[in-house]
User: Which sequence fits this backbone?
């Protein structure tokens, strides 16, 4: 643009401002707006350079300035800082004669600043939000005058309104995005899923949207909307949302309403982001074959937002631990996705998923759940893991097993589902009694990883338990007798037995030891006291009486936690007595006799079919105790520090 002469009329000045404002109105990015405003200030004042400064707390900054790199300074810095902090309009003919001028920038840029004009910009509340700074007038005398000041003041009025509007628009947009994400995360957090789930689903959705052919703006819109896919879960009762197992028909029907509930919450919004979110919430459980819910919409009648989010959500859900299941491995997930091509999922999207798999897996790694990042050494030293917590095996429920350390477990009801190949390191299984839900995985640990094992697996148990295992289980009829079979390329037997004695302390390593005590069950049985350093946890296994347990706890103050079974509801006292198991009534009648308050109670061995009733009764009858109901893969902390 040619130089502006001093004879430029008011109409011409307004026309120029109008031209620049028209250009600004088409822009969204703050930096782009500042750049155009700087061009306007430069043109109006016939200056060599113009910088638009913006106040940010105790600093002023400009990301775009003619011939300068981005800069951020304290708010009171130099001539610009003086103008902003005092509200003073400044014209200087020779900046090197002004003590406020900092020549360092000239030295760095090899640019010679001579004349300067600075005027502050005010918002509608007369608060200073920044300043225009023009440098080196290009006229013959090289200095700015009052007419330049008037022109720049006129420009600053428009500029200030533009910047305020842009900031407000950006703030509204960012707030809207934040609300959408936060609400989505709330929906997930109520169901004990992590905020990273919605981050991953959002990122997967954008990858698939771009691959499908959406432009960047629409793909970004879907990314921002997808966190709301399960917002309807806010209206689902906790007892259903966090049930550790399969829903019955009534519970499933209630759970499935979350899609319609989420849609109803936001469907009337006029904002594009929330309109997109309402589609996602409504349709992400529809299936390509028409067998989904809530409307059984089929094929491409399902909105592309719903089809994309459905795939992203299912992929992430399968690969994540949930209250009702353990994460699937990738091989199993990919197999299912391929099987559901054209059934659950849009076949085109399945193909695009695998074509972009590397990018999708990179997102999963970036936003992996926090619990996946905790190394074993970071866990509390006084912890053991529950491999199986329930009283019978069902989908989503594992039977009794406690991982004491890398080489030792108590019982073997659910080893493989949690440890998988890591079970090859197990050397000793301390068995409480001979019932199947406590021994079943002994067979599969030996069978599945036989070729990988290098050490004998030893069963340590009461003499009667070992006799039962030999006669009725590892007898070459029910299962091979592994005590007669050598390990691969070894003279060691795959399996051995060692009888234990009640009350004898057995050392496992320098810090760990274990001791058995008698329990009351339909077959000879024992519980165990596991000690690490000076802290102990008592595990009853199956029992009907707690008299022995109360006596032990009262006499051994180093026992900081107890794990007690509770198999049947109190409405089944006859069955509990005949099968020698506890109910909530019997359990709390027993432990009410304990005179210690410095002890943590964990409850396990609940029969899944009675779980809701038993949980309600535990809350009702618990008295002075605050019990924790164990789930598969929970951890028991028995440190004294936890209780002090």
Assistant:
């Amino acid at each position: 643009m040619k130089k502006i002469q001093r004879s430029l009329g008011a109409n011409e000045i307004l026309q120029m401002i109008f031209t620049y404002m028209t250009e600004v109105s088409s822009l969204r990015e703050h930096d782009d707006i500042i750049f155009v405003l700087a061009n306007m200030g430069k043109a109006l004042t016939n200056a060599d350079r113009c910088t638009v400064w913006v106040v940010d707390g105790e600093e002023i900054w400009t990301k775009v300035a003619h011939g300068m790199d981005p800069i951020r300074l304290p708010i009171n810095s130099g001539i610009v800082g003086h103008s902003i902090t005092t509200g003073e309009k400044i014209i200087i003919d020779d900046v090197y004669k002004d003590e406020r001028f900092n020549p360092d920038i000239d030295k760095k840029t090899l640019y010679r600043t001579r004349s300067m004009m600075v005027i502050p910009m005010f918002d509608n509340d007369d608060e200073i939000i920044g300043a225009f700074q023009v440098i080196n007038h290009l006229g013959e005398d090289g200095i700015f005058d009052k007419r330049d000041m008037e022109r720049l003041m006129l420009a600053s009025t428009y500029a200030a309104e533009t910047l305020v509007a842009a900031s407000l628009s950006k703030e509204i947009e960012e707030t809207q995005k934040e609300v959408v994400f936060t609400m989505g995360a709330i929906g997930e957090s109520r169901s004990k899923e992590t905020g990273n789930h919605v981050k991953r689903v959002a990122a997967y959705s954008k990858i698939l949207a771009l691959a499908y052919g959406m432009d960047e703006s629409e793909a970004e819109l879907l990314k921002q909307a997808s966190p709301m896919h399960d917002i309807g879960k806010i209206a689902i009762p906790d007892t259903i949302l966090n049930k550790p197992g399969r829903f019955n028909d009534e519970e499933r029907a209630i759970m499935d309403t979350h899609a319609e509930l989420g849609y109803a919450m936001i469907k009337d919004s006029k904002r594009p982001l929330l309109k997109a979110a309402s589609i996602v919430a409504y349709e992400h459980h529809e299936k390509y074959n028409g067998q989904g819910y809530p409307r059984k919409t089929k094929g491409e009648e399902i909105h592309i937002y719903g089809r994309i989010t459905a795939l992203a959500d299912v992929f992430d859900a399968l690969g994540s631990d949930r209250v009702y299941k353990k994460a699937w491995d990738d091989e199993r997930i990919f197999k299912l996705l391929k099987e559901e091509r054209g059934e659950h999922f849009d076949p085109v999207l399945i193909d695009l998923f695998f074509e972009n798999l590397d990018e999708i897996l990179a997102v999963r790694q970036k936003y992996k759940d926090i619990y996946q990042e905790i190394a074993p050494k970071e866990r509390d030293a006084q912890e053991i893991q529950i491999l199986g917590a329930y009283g019978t095996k069902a989908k989503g429920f594992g039977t009794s097993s406690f991982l004491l350390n890398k080489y030792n477990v108590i019982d073997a009801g659910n080893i493989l589902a949690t440890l998988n190949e890591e079970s090859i390191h197990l050397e000793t299984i301390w068995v409480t009694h001979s019932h199947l839900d406590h021994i079943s995985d002994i067979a599969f640990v030996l069978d599945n990883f036989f070729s990988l094992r290098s050490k004998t697996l030893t069963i340590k148990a009461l003499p009667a338990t070992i006799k039962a295992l030999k006669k009725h289980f590892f007898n070459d009829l029910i299962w091979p007798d592994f005590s007669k079979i050598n390990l691969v390329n070894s003279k060691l037997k795959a399996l051995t037995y060692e009888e234990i004695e009640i009350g004898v302390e057995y050392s496992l390593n320098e810090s760990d030891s274990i001791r058995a005590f008698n329990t009351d069950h339909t077959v000879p049985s024992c519980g165990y006291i596991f000690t690490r350093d000076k802290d102990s946890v008592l595990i009853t296994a199956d029992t009907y009486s707690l008299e022995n347990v109360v006596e032990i706890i009262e006499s051994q103050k180093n026992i900081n936690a107890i794990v007690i079974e509770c198999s049947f509801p109190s409405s089944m006292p006859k069955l509990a007595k005949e099968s020698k198991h506890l109910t909530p009534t019997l359990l709390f009648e027993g432990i009410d006799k304990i005179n210690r308050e410095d002890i943590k109670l964990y409850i396990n061995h609940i029969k899944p079919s009675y779980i809701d009733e038993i949980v309600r009764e535990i809350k009702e009858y618990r008295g002075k105790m605050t019990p924790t109901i164990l789930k598969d893969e929970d951890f028991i902390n028995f440190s004294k520090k936890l209780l002090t």
About this structure: The radius of gyration is 36 Å. The chain has a mean pLDDT of 82.
